[in-house]
Amino acid sequence: MTYLRTVGFKREFSRLPADVKERALNKFDLFTMDWKHPSLNIHKVEGASWHGRQVFELYVTQKYRVLFIVDEDVVVSFSIGPHSIVSQ
Fold this sequence. Notes:
Helices cover 27% and strands 41% of the residues. By secondary structure, it is of the alpha+beta class. The chain has a single domain (2-83), classed as YaeB-like fold, CATH 3.30.2310. A 5-stranded mixed sheet has the order 1-5-4-3-2. The radius of gyration is 12 Å and the shape is globular.
């Protein structure tokens, strides 16, 4: 699996509080080891697509989410932020 982050994702990540960044990095490590781990709470965002691909969300904390797509063997993270990013 190849993991990519968009420029927008990197910008959003840089603006996060330090504790959220740390939690996110831990979740990313877990995702690469076991993307089905229950604590990631990964699920489809119904009715959402990005560049024609189904959008998924991953829980960083109760409040923060990562939005990503899967394109064959490539995972592209394109947004990270408060839960409200899911409804944008």
